[in-house]
Amino acid sequence: MKAIKILLTCVLFAVPAAIGQNLPDLGDVSQSEMTALQERRLGESIMLEVRSDPSYSEDTEITDYLNSIGNKLVGASSDSRQEFNFFLMMDSQVNAFALPGGFVGINSGLMLTAQSESELAGVMSHEIGHVVQRHFARMLSAQKDTQLMALAGLAIAILASRSSSQVSQAAMIGSQAGSIQSSLNFTRANEQEADRVGFQILEKAGFDPAAMALFFERMLNATRFYQTTAPAYLRSHPLTTTRISDMQNRMQNLQYKQVPDSLEFQLMRAKLRAAQDTPAESVKFFEESLKERKYLSEVASRFGLVEALARTRDYGRASRELQTLRAALPPHPAIESLSARLLAATGDIAGSLRAYREALRNFPGYRALIYNYAESLLRINQPQEALKLIDSRLSNAVADYKLYQLQARAYAALNKGMQQHRALAEANYRMGNIRAAIEQLLLAQRAGDGDFYLQSSVDARLRELRALDKDSRKDGRK
Predict the structure, then answer these.
(1) How many domains does the chain have?
(2) Final residue belonging to a domain, choices 250, 275, 303
(3) Do residues 284 and 276 lie in contact, with contact meaning Cβ atoms separated by under 8 Å?
(4) How many beta carbons lie within 10 A of that of residue 20, not counting itself?
(5) Are residues 241 and 312 in the same domain?
(6) Are 187 and 325 contained in the same domain?
(7) What would the pLDDT profile of 57-94 be if each residue is shown by its tens digit?
(8) Which has more confidence, 234 or 470?
(9) d(CA 26, CA 152)
(10) Helical residues (DSSP H) of 158-180, grouped into ranges
(11) Domain span including residue 301
(12) For every residue of 200-261, which 3-state class applies, written as one string?
């Protein structure tokens, strides 16, 4: 198994010891309910493992699309103050999962299986329901005689299986699962609550509330007689006809409304579809869909064809198809990003850089353009230009860890060790890894190539993060 298999807060999985050791010491939850801060810290620690898995996707465009939908749903929830982060896993299994602290993962298989944007939003709203109802915290606080870390080793919904040895280790400790079977039953009982809350969120956010029941019913019917081949989502989310009936009953007093899919939904699905099979198979799929008009969006199918042709290195045809695509719709940032990438692939670096600059004038906040332009500047050994771009964006995106990573690469190219490690410290801090951030600041101190003011800045930041780390450990022992 190549991917991390993560289940919702309603599934019990074993955790390899190596992962358990990386989890934070959050103290004893037997005396009080787990705090929101503790949940967030636990989620950040799990995300450090998730990000290291090969199936974790760094695709900025799809990630930003998921966050735009997710934030729209969160804004319609009863607790819009909760911080959420949505991310993509390149896994063909139909699955989604919520982690402590508002981290929600969506498998590529789910995006491709959903037949409408409202169906995708329906699954996401269900996951948000688990988080805002604090199901994970309630499960842990019910374990009256259990240290959080002891329980987390079994109840955290994560299983990393990067090698056969780790899989074997997980199997060995998996026998402990029966001792807290009540936790599994407790979280399964929360499925209906997540359905109810998710339905309300979906309807309030302006999506088709019927889509949730339609999606679940279609999956249940497709696997009714083949439980062993049921999608991961059904195995991790026990689905019954009662749950579906409850969803359908909620629809009785609502007026039917058809909600069209956004262009972004269709484009991102096409991008995923183009990356799913071999390059030749992907080209054939989109060629046939266009020829036979078997598509929900012709623009999206042409977008997918260009992506697939680029994978086959048929850049001439990809460029011609791109021109057809451009003529079919107004300027769009995903199309502009694809155009710039295609120019770079053909060797027209100057043309690619011009395309990025022009696109950023029209779409200054589109992260994929920013990252790709900075990457291009670094590849052609223009770190100073890359720094200008990055620094101009950091003023409005101080929480963006990827910008700090790019900044560190630019400083490394300029042989500025202190600033390189300081940038890496900020990247680690924003990923929730304070201890790694402290280590980078210690390396910055030892670099010795900064002036008095830079050294003072590093020293002050180190004191600040050490104090935060100390307070964090203290809070965990309460």
Answers:
(1) 2
(2) 250
(3) no
(4) 17
(5) no
(6) no
(7) 999 999 999 999 999 999 998 776 788 999 999 998 88
(8) 470
(9) 10
(10) 164-173
(11) 263-477
(12) HHHHHCCCCCHHHHHHHHHHHHHCCCCHHHCCHHHHHCCCCHHHHHHHHHHCCCCCCCCCCC
